[in-house]
Amino acid sequence: MYPINLILDDKPCVVLGGGHVAFRKIEGLIEAKAKITVISPEIVSEINDLVGNKQITWIKKCYESGDLAGFELVICAIGNEEINQKVQLEANKRRILLNVVDRLDYCDFALPAKIRRGDLLVTFSTNGKSPALSRYLRCKMEQEFDDTYAKWLDKLVQLRKEAIEKLPTSDDREIFWRSALSDDVMELVRAKKYDEAEASIRNAISGFRA
Q1: Which end of the chain is more exposed for a tag (fewer CB within 10 A), N or C?
Q2: Are 91 and 65 in contact (CB under 8 A)?
């Protein structure tokens, strides 16, 4: 598996299954701003609330071949081996990305445990081999990643624009950022001394020589 973060904004995604596991997968898709459809004859109350709030669409039926048409990603959380195989065949035929819960051999991608703070996304993945370990690592690191780095990321957006104007080539910018985001600067960020950190970066931009 190649470690990528999928950009799912408004992309049509389908979740097969309506239980608590399916709900957790739906939460992640909502966070990714996907356009979500659930196919299941029954759904738990948490999913029903999302339907009631018009955050997702529910098709009340069992999965049948042909149901994946029009979707770009499918998560199968039914837990039935025969259905898993049918879903894999259809997904492969239609070239749709597939994740089957607890069946790594059927998956095109694994869903990492994640910490999101604004636009900052930190993920923990074991390539699907141990989701429990991914969740444990996420829980251990959640206190480390408060909103400090998310606020710094917002400031880096403007600093990055300034660096692009000053440093015209991608090679120059890569060299610059490797040195500019130094331990000293990040210590200022951790201390929430954002103005001082910004000033340090700006000085580095103005004084940069390739």
Answers
A1: C
A2: no
